[in-house]
Amino acid sequence: MKNIITLLLLLMGFNLVAANPFPARTVTVKNNTGYTLNKVVARETGTEDWSETLMKSDALEDGEQIKITIPDAGPDNCLFDIASASYEEIGLEWVIENADVCRTRIFTFDEDNFVEYDSAPEQDTVSENRGSSIQVTNTVGETIFYLFVRPAGTSSWSGDLLAGAGSDLYTFQDGETGSLAIPNLGDGTCRFDFKATALEESKILSIVNNVDLCNNPSVTFRKTGNSGQGGNTNQDNTGRAVTGTITIANKLGETVFYLYFRKSGTSDWGNDLLKTAGQELYTFQDGERGQLRIPNLSRNNCKFDIKATALDQSKILVDTRNIDLCTMNDIELVPKNNTNSSGGQEVNVTNNIGETIFYLFARKSGTSDWGEDLLATAGEVLYTFQDQETGSLSVPGFSRSSCKFDFKATALDKNKVLKTLNNVDLCRNPNVTFR
Question: Taking CA 157 as the corner, what is the angle to CA 179 and CA 220, rounded to the nearest 5 degrees?
Fold first, then answer.
């Protein structure tokens, strides 16, 4: 009798295991993206809302792997989408769709699941549910580049509201006020949370929670940590005031007399760093190399602009933008290459209109002057910008602190406009396709 009971228990145990051969909800994710990942999230396939980050640390370096626990996974609930993002550049995201977390233990983020975004939509694109408009005011002390909203009590933020806000708010600078459409407001939903960020989205400038927009259709954004309206604000502790050291080499062919670093997206160059660099770099001659401390450089504050000048400070030897000093901490100052009179940064442009573009104009969104034809000085690749051609083009005035532009492409008859693109955010995606 005892042997029979033992046999029955063994058979019952076997059936339980067979019914759920992979009961664990914990899986391993590998980072083969070439970038540092700062967030990993998941959602059940077919649903819309992503989880909070599943990483227990702030960074998963390239080539490393970690274990994460998938929320709500079980034997009858196995298919999930798993996504990751890097804060090293805007728009770096990877998504693994329909991941079977019951049968697969290891998932890898790599170039096969990298998400590529098309150019920003035209300004006159209307969403299915624009919602009602409210008044918003920026008093955080600096420009708000991205603004997100969600119904209070939910976890998923909207897309950037400023992308389609029009000329009044396309650069939402300190002291500005404008009108903004809030999705779903007036559809039985009154209370909302807001999140305002800098150009680097991980830097949260202001969070305002539980605002009753039905009774008070206005929001003032104040620096995070100060009292906000409608609810509590949350202190952002990601930026740590820690200095870092880089190695820098002069390969310009002449002496650098003044050297400045500033956080990308800001306007103040601050003080000359060579003045306090010590004997090693006090006269930074051609061929010299030394160590330099960069104020406020930290893992959460990586992107900097660099300017080097001759003794006459009006002679700029180097003016480089948006350098990631967390991943590039050995910097060589070299002569500027491929510079042009426009002084703009390069973007990639593609013609999918179906005919040749003869003239191409760009202007900062919210301005009226289209300026000169960009193709006139674009070189052989784009001089005749034919259908299906792709090339690199300099956009005057484009920098990490001036992102949004309008484009107009015309036929040989300039009055025949082939395509107009409005409010294109070149910082998020420096690839513009004319369709």
Answer: 35
CB burial of 45-72 (b: ≥16 within 10 Å; e: otherwise) equals eeeeebbebbbeeebbeeeeeeebebee
379 and 408, same domain (yes or no): yes
- Whole-prediction pTM: 0.30
Alpha-carbon distances of 428 from 33, 125, 199, 268, 403, rounded to whole Å: 18, 18, 9, 23, 8
- What phi and psi, each to the nearest 5 degrees, are found at residue 6? -60, -45
Residue 249 near residue 333 (C-beta atoms within 8 A): yes
DSSP state of 381: H
Number of domains in the chain: 4
Per-residue pLDDT at 259 = 93
Pick the closest to residue 283 from 311, 260, 304, 307 (CA basis): 311
Query: Each residue of 321-377: pLDDT tens digit?
Result: 777 777 677 788 887 543 333 345 678 888 999 888 888 999 888 788 888 888 877
Residue (of 176, 241, 235) closest to 205 by Cα position: 235
- What domain range is 77 assigned to? 2-113
In three-state secondary structure terms, 148 is: strand
Strand 132-139 versus strand 177-182 pairing type = antiparallel
- 95 falls within a domain: yes
Angle at the Cα of 92 (from 178 to 248), degrees rounded to 5?
100
> The tokens of 348 are what?
């990639």
